[in-house]
Amino acid sequence: MQLLKKIIFPSLACVSLLFGTACKNGKEKYTVYTNLPQGAYTLTEKNFDTVEIGGYTPNEQSFPEEDTSSYTTRGYTLYAMFTDAEIIVADDFTKEGAEEKYKQFKSDLSALLTEVSKCVSSTVKDSDIYNFNNAKAGATLEIGKTAYEVLSTAKSVYTFTEGFYNPALYYNIHAYGFSGESSHPESAEDLPDDALIAKYTDLAKRFGEVTLEEKEGRYFVTKPAYTVEADGEVISIKLDLGGVGKGYAVDKIDALYEKYGYNYGYTSFGASSMVLKSNFKTGPYTLVLTNPRSISQDAFIHIPARGEKLSTSGDNEQFYRIDGTRYCHIIDPETGKPVQKGIMSVTVIGGSAAEDDALTTAIMCMGKERAVKFIEEKLTDKKVVFTCE
C-alpha cells in the first residue's frame, strides 16, 4: 500500500513495504490528527497541518539492559494470507544452541501462519470460515480454537466500535471487485445497483447475531437465521476476516518471540500489521509513514517505537477511480459502499495487533469528527495517527 512504513537502522538502511499506485503529486494540503504527545513524533512534511487530540495516557515501559555487542540479525519471508510476512530476529548466534533454537523458531512460525491462514480464510475449502460461509442460515458448526479466538475479537471490536468494524460485508466487498476478482467496475454503469447493495448491507448488520460458545474445550459458532433475497437467490450472512486475521497472526508471532526469548527484531505482515521488539543497536525503531497521496512516497511523520504492536489501513491500499471518484477496498458499514468520508489512512499503535487491525478499519469508516471523539473517549491506551484530505 502507499502508506509506507520504514524501520530505520543506524546505518540508515531501511526496510520498506509498499503497495498500490499513487495518483497525485503529493503537494496538496492535508491534515494529520494524532493523540501522540509533543516529542513523541516528528512531522517531516510541510504540506500537512497537525491537529493534536487528547485522551492518550502514556504507558511507561521498561526494557532489560543487555550486552548486545555480539548480536547479528537473521531474516526471512513467509507468504501467507495473500501477502508476505517478513520476520527479523537479532541474537548472539555464536552461542551454543542458538542456531538450533532459531531453526525451531522458524519451524513453529511457519506452522503458526499455515494454521491461521487455513482457519480464517474464506476461500480455502473446508476452513472454518469457508464452512461457516457455506452453511445454511441458523446452522451451528464446530470450529477450531483459532477461528473461535479470531471471531471473538471480531465480535468484541464490532460491539466496541458500534458496528463500524463489520466483517460481514462479504457480499459488498465482492460486488465492488475487492476480493480477488479478475476485474472491477470500470464505469459508472458497471457499479453494483444501489438496491442490491442495500440488501447486502442489511444482511451484514446481522453480524451481532453470530453466537460463539465453548463447551468442555470444544468451540462452536451459530450462524444467524436471517436471510435476504438478492439477484433471485436467497443468501445468508458470510464473513471476510481479512481485516483482523493478519493482526491475530502478529499477536501469535509476538508470543513466539517471547517463548524463544527473542527481545530484538520485528515482524511486518504485509506492511499492515507489525510487532516491533527492540533494535539491538539503538533501542527504538523509527516508524515512518508516508503521505497516502504522494507519488514520490514522501514521509510525513517519524515515530520512535519499541515493544509495540500496530496496524495501518488506508484508502490507497487497493482502489480504482471512476469519473474522478476513488473506490477503495474498505467498505463503509453505514452505506455498504467503499468508504468516502475524507480519512485517507489510520495507524493504531499499542495493545493487540488483532484489535488494532480492526480498529483502523473502523476509524476509516467513522469520518473525522466521530473518529476524534472515539479516539479521545475510548482509545486512551493506544497511539493513533490518521490523515484527512
Protein architecture, described:
This protein has 389 residues and is α+β, with helices and mostly antiparallel strands. It contains eight helices and 21 strands. It has helices at residues 98-120, 128-134, 145-160, 170-175, 194-204, 242-259, 353-366, 368-378; strands at residues 5-8, 14-17, 30-34, 42-43, 48-52, 72-80, 83-91, 140-143, 211-215, 218-222, 227-230, 233-236, 264-269, 273-276, 285-290, 299-305, 308-314, 319-322, 325-328, 343-349, 383-388. The protein has a nine-stranded mixed sheet with strand order 5-3-21-20-17-14-13-7-6. Strands 2-1-15-16-4 form a five-stranded antiparallel sheet, with no helix packed on it. A three-stranded antiparallel sheet has the order 8-10-9. Strand 13 (264-269) and strand 14 (273-276) form a beta hairpin. Helix 1 packs antiparallel against helix 6, helix 3 runs parallel beside helix 7 (353-366) and helix 7 (353-366) runs antiparallel to helix 8 (368-378). The longest helix is centred in the N-terminal third of the chain and has 23 residues, at 98-120. The relative contact order is 0.20.
Keywords:
389 residues; alpha+beta; 8 helices; 27% helix; five-stranded antiparallel sheet; nine-stranded mixed sheet
